[in-house]
Automatic annotation (TrEMBL):
It comes from the Bacteria. Residues 30-153, 237-357 form the Type II secretion system protein GspF domain. The keyword ATP-binding does not apply. It is found in: Cell membrane. GO terms for cellular component: plasma membrane. The chain crosses the membrane at residues 132-155, 175-200, 331-356. It is a multi-pass membrane protein. Its main location: membrane. The keyword Metal-binding does not apply. This is Type II secretion system protein GspF domain-containing protein. Keywords: Cell membrane, Membrane, Transmembrane, Transmembrane helix. Pfam families: T2SSF.
């Protein structure tokens, strides 16, 4: 009976680990502390004991305790972390496996901490940039609805009592105000929600629709450039680390491919890997894939000819990381004035439409 109880307890813990979802701050704390302890020469099991003892958060305590028990029982760290897919991405796990095989686990944790911090700062920068225009947009929509629902009917009744013919712009604004209260509005709103739901379902099905959708997103003027730059930065950074650790180029690309979420890029990367496996050079396969920039392709060609592909990947990552930062700053600089211009123009058109009959009446007098 005792072994059965232990087995059932282990199963319950594994199920709980599968449901574990660490926040970004918690995952970064784990990664950072592991890097510091391993870098200081603390053995892996002792590092996990220290983290279990000193952690104050229940979720982290549970994770550290589970890792400690499993590693002391002979399991690999990456094997246990793989039981928590909601907390650790495939790329995270792949790099941990590389660190275990190469004996450079502390270096991998340092790299992961730097990678997560950089990506989080990038996302936070975009979110902060969008917060102000989105707030302005919500307030503007509320003001517009108030004008269309409360103010426009008042002006309509005044103009109707006067019996004068209204300008076309004023008529259209009044018609739109009526539309907001009509059954047609409910029909169009329902149709729009069904369309959005259908797109989300098709996107989640991961078929050709998602492939085409992801391809179109990459072709968008500024957002597509940011996504492409981000892909190159992550790819070059991961390849630099894996090639340093002795992983072959094909295997490194396969491991990186597991973390790629854009299906268009993922399929092109698989074609690139197939070409490499068939004996084609990285420069030619990357050129055919269309995933790399001209600068990156030139540097890859130089790296292959000189035998310095590993260090070249570091230079590619640094170069495109600087370009990526510039793209994001450009997007931020573009969003604020465009949002204010759009909202101001919309409010201005409605106000002009409301007062245009009065202006016409004044000029007639």
């Amino acid at each position: 009976m005792i072994p059965m109880r232990r087995d059932s307890l282990m199963e319950r813990r594994m199920q709980k680990l599968e449901r574990l979802e660490l926040s970004w701050q918690e995952r970064r704390f784990f990664t950072e502390q592991m890097a510091l302890l391993l870098d200081a020469g603390v053995p892996l099991t002792q590092a996990l004991v220290l983290l279990t003892t000193h952690s104050t958060r229940r979720r982290l305590q549970f994770l550290f305790r589970k890792l400690q028990e499993s590693v002391m029982a002979g399991q690999a760290l990456s094997t246990v972390l793989a039981l928590a897919p909601r907390s650790f991405s495939r790329l995270y796990l792949a790099l941990i496996r590389v660190g275990e095989r190469s004996g450079q686990l502390s270096a991998v944790f340092h790299y992961l901490e730097s990678l997560e911090r950089t990506e989080h700062e990038r996302v936070a920068m975009i979110r902060n940039a969008l917060r102000y225009p989105l707030t302005v947009l919500v307030v503007a929509i509320a003001v517009l609805l108030f004008i269309l629902i409360a103010i426009v009917p008042t002006f309509e009744s005044i103009y109707r009592a006067g019996g004068e013919s209204l300008p076309l712009l004023t008529q259209k604004v009044i018609q739109f105000s009526h539309f907001l209260f009509s059954p047609a509005m409910l029909y169009w709103l329902t149709s729009f929600l069904i369309l959005v739901w259908g797109i989300i379902r098709l996107y989640g099905a991961e078929g050709r629709f998602r492939y085409q959708f992801d391809r179109i997103v990459l072709e968008l003027p500024l957002l597509g450039m940011i996504l492409q730059e981000s892909f190159i930065v992550r790819c070059a950074t991961v390849l630099n680390l894996m090639l340093q650790s002795g992983v072959t180029l094909v295997n490194a690309l396969k491991l990186f491919g597991e973390s790629v979420e854009n299906h268009y890029q993922k399929e092109k990367l698989e074609e690139m890997i197939a070409a490499l496996s068939a004996g084609q050079s990285l420069h030619l396969s990357a050129t055919d894939s269309g995933l790399m920039s001209d600068v990156a392709l030139t540097m890859i060609s130089i790296g292959e000819m000189s035998g310095e592909l590993t260090s070249v990947m570091k230079r590619i990552a640094d170069y495109h990381n600087a370009r990526l930062k510039g793209r994001i700053e450009g997007l931020i600089a573009l969003i604020d004035p465009l949002s204010l211009l759009f909202i101001g123009a919309l409010v201005g058109v409605i106000l002009i439409a409301l007062y245009l009959p009065l202006f016409n009446l004044g000029s007639a007098l």
